[in-house]
């Protein structure tokens, strides 16, 4: 974006713009006062703006002509705000916020009687409103889905790479949508995070994952009484960690299902950790109560090593991208080797995810990676399918 910094000066009584003019820029009032009128200065004044206030932004936001006329009430100095300085922000803003803004502006324009001046681009406005409203509707559907038990978990086994036996699972959520079929978490988790709906949803996901783990562990101890207990990895977002009473609630859930917190690995995605200092307090509390912590998608965040330095994780999960390129990019192999050695020296276990073929699995095993997860071993499955492999 190239920003012109230029200043315009007006004398008392000068017209700054007229109702119906096309809107190319907005202004910040640096000096003086500006009056807004329906059409001319003879009309009744609608508003009086002073130093530091924004002027002429409406036409930019909804891409319509000026809805009022602006006159200098005394000697006025204006800083020009380029259209793009505002529109680029709007493009990046949440569609719901943009939708709400559009609705408010169109209401104000109606009140000002400025609708007759509206000319083009109704369509683009409607698109913004529709996009925002679709999102709101989706949020409602998500709420109902949770009530109707349409948010379910599938479980992807993680294997001990040393002998390919199942060591534990990752709980991955799915939305069993009555019309759309199975909806991927990519489509609804982000939205749930934006609206904090992830908090009740996450607790339900946590609860059913613990319930399943208890059943899986019982079954395993009947079949292989000597084997170490199966674990369950559960994805938890920072919004959940920071929510009121999160720790007490997950403690209650594990107690209710007679699960040892040490068999639960809380997976936190590195790319979502914005403020690690905050996250540190929550992580320390969870570990104090015996939960294990796993750093997900390692290598994709902005400050991977800083996270490792400051936060006490028990497990590192190397992002799929390194595993996917292990056979084609020699750098991947070097990085994987170094991360594995580092994890071992720091007493952390290491998981490689996204393993899709035998060769990659063998390379990772040789390297000393503890656990493997990926389509080569097992795809995410529902609980009854898991029963069969235990
Ligand atoms: P993630 O935590 O990195 O989960 C791993 C994703 O990789 C899963 O996608 C899994 O199905 C997929 N995957 C596993 N093995 C392979 C493989 O060999 N090849 C390929 N190409 N993909 C593989 P999924 O289930 O679509 O989940 C996507 C993301 O959604 C997850 O990424 C996680 O960040 C998020 N997510 C899923 N469930 C939850 C949840 O209950 N809570 C939260 N907060 N996030 C969740
Ligand atoms: Ca994960
Ligand atoms: Ca991951």
Structure, described:
The longest helix is centred in the middle third of the chain and has 26 residues, at 122-147. This protein has 390 residues and is an alpha/beta fold. The chain has an 8-stranded mixed beta barrel with strand order 9-10-12-13-14-15-16-17, surrounded by 6 helices. Strands 1-8-3-6 form a 4-stranded antiparallel sheet. The chain has a 4-stranded antiparallel sheet with strand order 2-7-4-5, with no helix packed on it. It starts with 6 loop residues before the first strand and ends with a helix. 43% of the residues lie in helices and 23% in strands. A hairpin with a 5-residue loop joins strand 9 and strand 10 (166-177). It folds into 2 domains: 7-126, Jelly Rolls, CATH 2.60.120.10; 149-389, EAL domain (TIM Barrel, Alpha-Beta Barrel). The structure holds ligand C2E and calcium ion (2 copies).
List keywords for this structure.
alpha/beta, binds calcium ion, elongated, binds ligand C2E, 2 domains, TIM Barrel, 17 strands, Jelly Rolls, 390 residues, 8-stranded mixed β-barrel
Write the layout of secondary structure elements.
Layout: E1 7-10, E2 15-17, E3 25-31, E4 34-37, E5 47-49, E6 54-55, H1 58-62, E7 69-72, E8 76-82, H2 83-92, H3 95-111, H4 122-147, E9 151-160, E10 166-177, E11 181-183, H5 185-194, H6 198-223, E12 231-235, H7 238-241, H8 246-256, E13 264-269, H9 276-288, E14 292-298, H10 304-310, E15 315-318, H11 320-324, H12 330-345, E16 349-353, H13 358-367, E17 371-373, H14 383-389
Parallel strand pairs: 10-12, 12-13, 13-14, 14-15, 15-16, 16-17
Antiparallel strand pairs: 1-8, 2-7, 3-6, 3-8, 4-5, 4-7, 9-10, 9-17, 10-11
Helix pairs in contact: 3-4, 6-8
């Amino acid at each position: 974006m190239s920003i012109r910094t230029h200043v315009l000066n007006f004398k008392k009584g000068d017209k700054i713009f007229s109702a119906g003019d096309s809107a190319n820029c907005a202004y910040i009032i640096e000096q003086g006062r500006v009056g807004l009128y329906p059409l001319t200065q003879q009309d009744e004044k609608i508003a009086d703006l002073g130093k530091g206030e924004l002027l002429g932004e409406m036409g930019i936001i909804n891409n319509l002509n000026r809805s009022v006329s602006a006159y200098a009430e005394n000697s006025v100095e204006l800083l020009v705000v380029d259209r793009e300085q505002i529109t680029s922000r709007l493009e990046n803003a949440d569609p719901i916020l943009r939708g709400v803004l559009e609705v408010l502006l169109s209401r104000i324009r109606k009140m000002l009687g400025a609708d007759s001046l509206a000319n083009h681009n109704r369509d683009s406005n409607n698109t913004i409103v529709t996009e925002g409203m679709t999102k709101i509707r989706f949020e409602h559907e998500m709420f109902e889905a949770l009530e109707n038990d349409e948010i379910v978990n599938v479980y992807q086994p993680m294997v001990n790479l040393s002998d390919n036996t199942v060591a534990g699972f990752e709980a991955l959520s799915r939305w069993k949508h009555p019309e759309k079929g199975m909806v991927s978490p990519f489509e609804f988790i982000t939205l749930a995070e934006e609206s904090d709906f992830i908090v009740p949803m996450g607790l339900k996901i946590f609860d059913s994952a613990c319930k399943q783990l208890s059943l899986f562990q019982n079954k395993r101890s009947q079949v292989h009484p000597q084997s170490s207990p199966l674990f369950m990895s559960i994805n938890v977002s920072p919004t959940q960690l920071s929510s009121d009473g999160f720790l007490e609630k997950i403690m209650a859930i594990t107690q209710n299902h007679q699960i040892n917190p040490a068999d639960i690995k809380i997976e936190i995605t590195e790319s979502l950790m914005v403020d690690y200092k905050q996250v540190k307090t929550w992580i320390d509390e969870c570990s104090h109560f015996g939960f294990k912590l796993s750093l997900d998608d390692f290598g994709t965040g902005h400050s991977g090593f800083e996270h490792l330095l400051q936060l006490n994780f028990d497990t590192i999960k190397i992002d799929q991208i390194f595993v996917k390129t292990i056979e084609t990019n020699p750098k991947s192999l070097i990085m994987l080797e170094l991360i594995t050695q580092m994890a071992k020296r720091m007493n952390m276990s290491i998981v490689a995810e996204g393993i899709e073929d035998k060769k990659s699995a063998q390379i990772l095993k040789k390297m000393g990676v503890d656990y493997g997860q990926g389509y080569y071993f097992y795809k995410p499955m529902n609980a009854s399918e898991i029963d069969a492999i235990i």
